[in-house]
Write a structure and sequence with these properties.
Elements lengths: L2 H19 L1 E11 L2 E11 L14 E5 L2 E5 L6 E6 L3 E8 L2 E10 L4 E9 L2 E10 L2 E4 L5 H8 L4 H9 L6 H13 L1
Antiparallel strand pairs: 1-2, 1-5, 2-3, 3-4, 5-6, 6-7, 7-8, 8-9, 9-10
Helix pairs in contact: 2-3
């Protein structure tokens, strides 16, 4: 067998094994719409190391309630929560400025922080997103530090520290400090 065929065969085996590892099952969860909460089972896919395939929830969520399967899109519900034995409680929300996608909620506050799961050519990326005053700002682009700095302007000390002392990897810590400051 020549080298080109070996490479193609190895690539096919790797792709097939990834597909084989992705298993569909249900986990306990709830769907939130307005003041209503529906306790249900949520269909999930797990991949390697039994981690949830979060890209499965970008455009829709499928639930099982009383033996009836229902699909919801972001414009139909406010949020859904999954109770994962390996990852804890995961909350996905639809944002008022984007009713086409679900976002994984990391921090809720005056500045909220989310991950948007994007899959391109079988590669999954978690894109950082912040929301302040209903404005959605992606931080995976150039000038992400300056983008967040603009949102911190109403807390001058933290704004200065963000620019001069912190790096991009500290953004969650900085957002938590910002939100905590305004809870006082």
């Amino acid at each position: 067998m020549n080298t080109k065929r070996k490479v193609i065969l190895i690539a096919l085996i790797a792709l097939m094994s990834q597909v084989a590892f992705a298993k569909s099952k249900t986990l306990k969860g709830s769907v939130i719409s307005g003041k209503d909460t529906i306790r249900c089972e949520i269909f999930v896919k797990t991949g390697f190391k039994k981690r949830l395939e979060q890209n499965y929830f970008t455009k829709k969520v499928s639930i099982l309630k009383d033996d009836v399967k229902t699909k919801y899109k972001p414009h139909q519900i406010d949020a859904f929560i999954i109770s994962s034995p390996t990852e804890g409680e995961l909350k996905f929300v639809s944002l008022s400025g984007d009713k086409q996608n679900f976002y994984r909620e990391i921090i809720k506050g005056r500045i909220s922080y989310y991950n948007f799961c994007a899959t391109i050519d079988y590669t999954t990326s978690y894109l950082p997103v912040v929301v302040k005053n209903d404005k959605i700002i992606f931080l995976n682009v150039m000038n992400s530090k300056q983008r967040l700095a603009k949102l911190l302007i109403d807390y001058p000390e933290l704004h200065s520290d963000w620019i001069n002392k912190y790096s991009n990897k500290d953004r969650i810590e900085v957002i938590r400090k910002y939100n905590k400051h305004f809870l006082k």
